[in-house]
Design a protein that fits this description.
extended, alpha+beta, five-stranded antiparallel beta sheet
Length: 480
């Protein structure tokens, strides 16, 4: 080997050693990571084979696990509340929309606000939800001849898989164009798990333009949604088994038995009974019994277990983190929080809620529904154009400390950091409607010769100053 080759070999060894020292611990392949299985597969390869199992187990947890059921209610109440409200600039179309949302349910059970809650609950529990547009006749008497039918994802015929002549394909009941665009869904005519049926269950092709397939996409190319309880299913199930085993153990710990050692078979110290040829006696409370010489009485004393409460709390923290809610929301336990901690946790939770609302639900569901409403109304000759301005107002978040939050809100408004309309929407109100109501109320008070309740604009500043003065007095008294 020449001198140059030796130098190159030495440099190669140095590079290998350097790379080895600077590698990621998470990519190590040694004894510590020997049991760590991490497949290099697509989202669909990971999801589709186990989707039915995940969905069924998620529903079982919601049915029988109180914490899973509470988590579903917490998510729905914060994501939807009493409904996300549309604000339409055109008053004539707004009036038509307000009439239609009351009768938009194809099952005639909910209004549009109730449908929103049903969609949110279904998406969280089953991982996805289908909204199908059902077109009606003008003679049906609807304000706009279209309704919404909410379907569970079980309606998708996952056995439908084939390559099409136009170079498109059908994968797990979803039909794609040659460029990968969703063009149709193959849906069953009824739920495949229905126990009572008078028809043959079969699937038919429904254009994708008539379907909203709503789910939270975690990875690019993901076709189907996963239940939100998927990361914590084993933890929740293990906790259920632990609690049940603890109840059985506690029952055993509460049992105290007495063992009598004697040579006299006729000897008795309590009320005697026979069970399966065995003599069993019961001791009465406060009884005093004297034993004969040579007899011995021994009491069993099962040891009490410790640490159950700590383990349960730890598992509940893990479940809350996996779902994306706080421990206090999951359990209702507020014993370990103060104002600062609950505010910090609530603010972080609200950011996740806003992400779901504005990045998932509004563009995927609400915008699609109102666009379909406008298209159908225009086709029916009910409106002159579909080019309509609209916006959405999400339900308000209640303040942790109303006084402090209102003062902070007023400061942001005075500094121009937000608009009045933005602040009103954050409180769950329609700015235009609120402005009209305020204007009308002021005129009513003025015509009646009465002062309006808000007498001066700086009333909040005055109240803030009074609060600060009072806090100063309290601190001074405490120091004395």
């Amino acid at each position: 080997m020449s001198k140059l080759e030796k130098v190159r070999a030495d440099m190669g060894k140095r590079i290998v050693n350097l790379v080895t020292k600077r590698s990621y611990d998470g990519a190590r392949n040694d004894r510590r990571s020997g049991g760590w299985v991490a497949a290099n597969s697509s989202a669909n390869t990971e999801i589709l084979p186990q989707l039915s199992i995940l969905r069924n187990r998620s529903r079982e947890l919601v049915r029988n696990n109180p914490y899973a059921a509470k988590a579903m209610r917490v998510l729905a109440s914060n994501r939807i509340g009493t409904g996300i409200i549309a604000t339409i600039k055109d008053k004539q179309i707004a009036s038509l929309w307000n009439k239609w949302v009351k009768v938009c349910d194809a099952d005639w059970q909910y209004d549009f606000n109730g449908i929103q809650r049903l969609i949110a609950m279904t998406e969280a529990e089953s991982g996805e939800c289908l909204i199908r547009f059902r077109y009606r006749k003008m003679s049906d008497g609807l304000p706009v001849p279209v309704q919404l039918q909410i379907l569970e994802p079980d309606f998708i015929d996952t056995t439908k898989n084939e390559n099409l002549k136009n170079k498109g394909w059908i994968q797990n009941g979803i039909e794609f164009s040659p460029i990968g665009e969703r063009v149709a869904y193959w849906l069953f005519n009824q739920h495949p798990g229905e126990s009572i049926t008078n028809t043959i269950v079969k699937s038919s092709r429904i254009p994708a333009s008539d379907i909203i397939h709503f789910f939270d996409r975690k990875r690019p190319g993901q076709m189907r949604g996963v239940p939100i309880l998927a990361p914590i299913m084993m933890t929740a199930n293990d906790l259920n088994e632990f609690v049940e085993a603890t109840l059985v153990r506690k029952a055993a710990e509460a049992c105290i038995a007495a063992v009598v050692e004697t040579d006299d078979e006729n000897r008795s110290i309590g009320n005697e009974s026979i069970d399966d040829q065995m003599r069993i006696e019961e001791l009465a409370p406060g009884m005093v019994q004297y034993l004969s010489p040579g007899e011995k009485l021994t009491f069993t004393n099962p040891s009490a277990s410790q640490g159950d409460i700590g383990y349960v709390a730890d598992r509940l923290h893990a479940i809350a983190a996996g779902i994306g809610i706080t421990y206090e929301q999951l359990t209702g336990d507020l014993s370990q929080v103060n104002y600062s901690s609950i505010r910090a946790g609530t603010l972080d939770f609200r950011r996740e809620i806003e992400q779901w609302q504005w990045l998932n639900f509004v563009p995927s569901v609400l915008n699609t529904v109102i666009e379909k409403f406008l298209e159908t109304a225009f086709a029916a000759g009910l409106i002159p154009s579909t080019d309509i301005e609209y916006d959405w107002t999400t339900p308000r978040f209640d303040w942790v400390d109303p006084m402090k939050d209102v003062q902070g809100e007023q400061l942001e408004l005075s500094m121009g950091l937000k608009t009045w309309s933005e602040a009103v929407r954050a409180r769950g109100f329609n700015p235009d409607l609120l402005f009209e109501e305020l204007k009308a109320e002021r005129e009513k008070f003025k015509s009646a010769g009465m002062d309006y309740p808000i007498k001066q604009e700086n009333s909040m500043n005055q109240q803030s100053t009074e609060n600060q003065n009072q806090e100063g007095k309290n601190k001074k008294q405490q120091s004395m």
